[in-house]
Amino acid sequence: MGKDIFTIRENTLSYGRGYVYSLQYHLVWCTKYRKKVLTDGLDTECKEMLQKLAEEYRFQILAMEVMPDHIHLLVDCKPQFFISDMIKIMKGNLARQMFLVHPELKQQLWGGHLWNPSYCAVTVSDRSREQGTGTGIHGGAERKRKAKKLENEVLSCGLHPVMAWK
Question: Which of 23, 57, 66, 153 is the most core-located residue (most Cβ within 10 A)?
Answer without folding.
Answer: 66
